[in-house]
């Protein structure tokens, strides 16, 4: 009986101690518990790592001790690192660099073209000019006879478009260009001004790498006008009848390229600059005009202008023009302007013919 009472007391004390220890463990856990760190979102971590220039690296997840490493994948294109690259060349433009052939491009030795020099003009005394008139004409490169002005082929001396020849003469032969404000050759322009006029403005283009998704900002030049938009050339010339030689002589005074530019949705002509033609002759003699019939029978550009082997129409003259106006200001109908231009040419031709007596 005594043994049974002692065993019950021991059982009761042990049960009470066990309950007390369990209650103490729960109370201590509640008081000392801390909020577990939330699981890191892999997408957020990848984006943050990529923005910190660690894209493509391997970093362990510290929130889980036994977690495997997480590989950071590239972020979207908009969040990638940005680099800047300069590309100021214009493909097919007038300001492209001349490439020199390391070997001869012809089966024959073409030394004559390099050694050509223009013939000197005959001297005309002021007292010998009996009759004289100034005429302004325009050459349209779209006409069949003037297609050589727009020939886009490349030769040893660069692009064969006539406007490119003018630019090369200014850049390499020190030919002076003058302001387009008037045709009196009063204000010279520097080569940098001509380069800025034709090269265009800088433009930034975003280029994305298809493999890595990185964005590269490429700074390029946006052309002001297309190379083929300069197909009209204005010439100023003087017709003189020399009584000593008894013949009518035409001397070209200046040449001006006309560009077509879009302003307010409308295409408008714009005179780029004027070049004094006698200064240009030394450069024109080095370039040959495209000949579709015989490539070996080409003439130089200087011969083309001196022989007047081009088609043109009159836009202004000093004949019966006291107001010094262009024909488009006097005659609104384009067809009638062409007919009036032909009438001016006939007046010049008839003056010389009427001097002769049969």
Task: Give the SSE layout.
Layout (H helix, E strand, L loop, with lengths): L1 H31 L9 H10 L6 E2 L10 E2 L10 E6 L41 E12 L13 E2 L2 E2 L2 H11 L4 E2 L9 E2 L1 H9 L1 E8 L6 E8 L9 E11 L4 E17 L2 E6 L2 E3 H8 L16 H6 L6 E5 L9 H4 L3 H21 L4
Parallel strand pairs: 3-10
Antiparallel strand pairs: 1-2, 4-11, 4-15, 5-6, 7-8, 7-14, 9-10, 11-12, 12-13, 12-14
Shape: elongated
User: Which parts are unreliable, with pLDDT below 50 for 5 consecutive residues or more?
Assistant: 23-65, 67-82, 86-92
Tally of separate helices: 8
Report Rg. 42 Å
Helix content: 25-40%
What is the rounded distance between the termini? 175 Å
Strand content: 15-25%
Count all strands and give the number. Answer: 15
The average pLDDT value, as a whole number, equals: 77
Largest sheet: 8 strands, antiparallel
The ordered string of helix (H) and strand (E) elements is HHEEEEEEHEEHEEEEEEHHEHH
Structural class: alpha+beta
Q: How would you describe this protein?
A:
- The radius of gyration is 42 Å and the shape is elongated.
- The chain is α+β, with helices and mostly antiparallel strands and 358 residues long.
- It has helices spanning 2-32, 42-51, 162-172, 191-199, 277-284, 301-306, 327-330, 334-354, and strands spanning 58-59, 70-71, 82-87, 129-140, 154-155, 158-159, 177-178, 188-189, 201-208, 215-222, 232-242, 247-263, 266-271, 274-276, 313-317.
- It contains 8 helices and 15 strands.
- It has a domain at 125-200 and 225-354.
- The strands form 4 sheets. Strands 4, 7, 8, 11, 12, 13, 14 and 15 form an 8-stranded antiparallel β-sheet that branches. A 3-stranded mixed β-sheet has the order 3-10-9, with no helix packed on it. Strands 1-2 form a two-stranded antiparallel sheet.
- Helix content is 28%, strand content 25%.
- The model is unreliable at 23-65, 67-82 and 86-92 (pLDDT under 50).
